[in-house]
Amino acid sequence: MNTLFDKIWEAHIVKRIDASTSVLYIDRQYIHEVTSPQAFASLKERGISVFRPKQITASPDHNIPTQNQHLPIQEPQSAKQVAELEKNCAENGIEIFPIGSERNGIIHVIGPQTGLTQPGMTIVCGDSHTSTHGAMGCVAFGIGTSEVEMVLASQSLLQTKPMTMRINVEGKLGKGVCSKDIILYIISKMGTGGGTGYFIEFAGSAIRSLSMEARMTICNMSIEMGARGGMIAPDQTTFDYLKDREFAPKGEEWDKAVKRWSKLRSEPNAVFDKEVTFNAANIKPMITYGTNPGMGMAINGKIPSSRGLDTAAKISYKKALEYMDFKSGDNMIGKPIDYVFVGSCTNGRIEDLRAFANFVKGHKKAENVTAWIVPGSKEVERLAIEEGLRDILEEAGFELRQPGCSACLAMNEDKIPAGKYCVATSNRNFEGRQGPNSRTLLAGPLVAAAAAITGVITDPRDFL
Amino acid sequence: MIQKFTTLTATAVPLPIENIDTDQIIPARFLKSTSRSGFGDNLFYDWRYDEKGKLKEEFVMNKSEFRGPILVAGKNFGCGSSREHAAWAISGAGFRAVISSHFADIFRNNALNNHLLPVTVSEEMLAKIFQAIKENPRTEIRIDLFDMFVEISGTGHRENFKIPPHNRECMINGYDDVDYLVTLRDQIASYEQNKIDD
To answer: Among the CATH numbers 3.20.19.10, 3.40.190.10, 3.10.180.10, 3.10.100.10, which is that of B7-197?
Structure first.
């Protein structure tokens, strides 16, 4: 008890049902076009109204095109889902940020960016990467559509309380190592199921030193080790990021809020169900070689062997390498790639675009590479243009597209063709995630940039 | 319509692969429906069908000897996205329970909310179930939600499993959380009031 997580969780309990289950109050729900229509339809069938429409915000993001957003959506089923979202919001008095409008974007990018996401809140969305908001000191987690419906109906959820885990990353990060490398490193050590049943607090000097956006990348991927969510205690970095944002408290209210938020931290005597510590100095630029985010390695290493794994794990390991057409013992450096995707709720924020653009500045995109640079929101796109990043990108042979989830899950037209390799700054390298039989190599924006200009997997530190 | 779950004795379909993610269960390109039905045909689509949409004979669901309403899968089943479509697809294909040694959290909740029973067993028990089905695909597995155990029929191998009492009650009686939560609206409103007053 006395952890940051416990404090927020306990403060949101409306009613305890039994030893493990409580009715948990939800401060804010985000919705998008793919996981909400069935919830609205079912609510309508039951004749139930939306209980707290003002605490819900919608943004279409999953299946929207990233080009020509001023035109109607071509794909009929996507168009229908987006139209349905707009209709459901209009009928129920829910605010929506429509395609092309200045506040539209990936829901996990615009929540923090607009100041809707604030420390101490409970936040849900029908999307597993809702954990992103935990970087602001929230209890934020992904839910299914039935649960979306529950929150629409009651602004609450029946939940079993997860266990708590603290992951400390201590020390100084090496040159060319970014927050994506930290989280890929942690997942490679913990495994894709290592966090199941837990809510994780990330702490330690290396985490504290990160910018707000870099922290979001870490919390975003906590789901990739199976955790219910990830969070970081709010501090001055959080407050500086949030101040003056559109929906953040203002004036006297702001001062009161900061005072309240400053108490949101784990007490020195806090007890976690599990605690793990990593040394930041051991982390190198990372890349994945397999078909789950736990199959990550230092970029300059060799693909590990299946030695030491049990029989069941060996079968899955072999299947993954066959899918990727890699062999254990292979170097990753020098392997040719076909596509680069920069974007998503993991690494589609302005700092990611800055990192990528500054890296490729003065170089040219490799001829064998097709690159999709997709801002996480309309605001990120605006800043990229205003700061001259788009000019840098175009000069180097890249094109800045329009915001959306894009090739992260390939629900729109942005699909990686079968058999092709894509270095992606997104969050999942599952079989077929970026299109049937596509092969995904997860990495941070610097590794993506190095691959984009050389056409092969390259250690970004060679350029720094 | 909510299906009640009490006991089930039936044959099972084995899928001894670990970390089966929701993109394998139902690829994102099939998530464009705005209804809850019709996902069963696309369950494990890229494993079941080739690029031309032809059945892949080697995949377990396409083999005639493996049939039944129980899916048995390797550990960390349902990891990845929160898409409830994964639970809809499994239910839609006729499954009523999934047995694994480890479920991803969101998938487990989604399954429970659709009255698809996730049964967590030990690694040893899971290996025994796989072995028994391998030896005889007609092996029946008994799942008893009243007494919370799973048994390989005819072998005596039996193990208890856990499920939160609330979820168990909902499964057995066919209750639904939405209706329940709506009855709490007054209590939720007073919680909101107290929170503001704090």
So the answer is: 3.20.19.10
